[in-house]
Design brief:
With 120 residues, the protein is mainly α. The N and C termini lie close together (9 Å). 76% of the residues lie in helices and 0% in strands. It has a single domain, classed as Up-down Bundle (de novo design (two linked rop proteins)).
């Protein structure tokens, strides 16, 4: 039974991914602090944050769903920043693949949650 946003597997996965990306970004060059580093951490954190904000408004289905769409947008934005990080040589091909697989899974979960919200 889902009693809190913390019970949503998609939130748990999104939160963990944001933490993993944050830890990896600490190794980015200092000159990336106000560009790539801040962008990738912000977009990755926004995935779970939008789920939480939507959960608080779940009584209003359209508002909740709008936040899920925003979360999905942040998911895709993070994919783009992860590509930049790999192409700039800041993360390995292995981490790139891992992050993209996780982002794909989270995106699919967000889409299913959006489509099936009434069932929860």
């Amino acid at each position: 039974m889902i009693k809190s946003y913390k019970d949503l597997e998609v939130h748990q996965k999104a939160y963990q991914l944001a933490m993993d990306i944050f830890k990896a970004s600490r190794n980015f060059p200092r000159e990336e602090l106000y560009s790539l580093t801040s962008q990738i951490t912000s977009s990755s954190r926004s995935i779970s944050s939008n789920i939480v904000e939507g959960w608080a408004k779940r009584e209003y289905e359209n508002l909740f769903k709008r936040h899920l769409i925003d979360s999905l947008g942040s998911c895709h934005e993070t994919e783009n920043w992860v590509s930049f990080a790999k192409d700039c040589g800041y993360i390995s091909e292995e981490k790139f693949t891992k992050y993209n697989e996780e982002l794909d899974t989270i995106g699919k979960m967000l889409t299913r949650l959006h489509q099936n919200w009434k069932k929860f």
